[in-house]
Amino acid sequence: MMFKKCWIFAGLVLLLFxxxxxxxxxxxxxxxxxxxxxVMILRxxxxxxxxxxxxVMLDDHVIAGLRCGEHMxxxxxxxxxxxxxxxxxxxxxxxxxxxxxxxxxxxQSQFGFEFFEMSGKRAGERIKDxxxxx
Length: 134
Known about the structure:
By secondary structure, the chain is α+β, with helices and mostly antiparallel strands. It has helices spanning about 1-15, 120-130, and strands spanning about 20-25, 35-45, 55-60, 60-65, 70-75, 80-85, 90-95, 100-105, 115-120. The protein contains 2 helices and 9 strands. The N and C termini lie far apart (about 50 Å).
């Protein structure tokens, strides 16, 4: 009986870590840096949701999956874009030459996660905390 429980547990762990992760075919590929806006998304590194990869969306397409403590940076063309995770989407204008920072955090809502824009100052503190500067 104990052997069967171990196999079930191992199977559940594999399922948990098999969530989609990394970039998808819709990940923005922009080479014209001077005429785009930079977007950085940080995901907190709390224990809650540790094994889950959350889908980051841009204009109704999943562009990547982020796990706890990960971040991503990409560029978008100027204009209004919708960005977020499935449960929380934000539509806003992006201006060329500007940087935008967002965070995915755990919360107590029915979805368990939130997505919000951060100020450049707050993002700088989070980046420093996560040792993302090289």
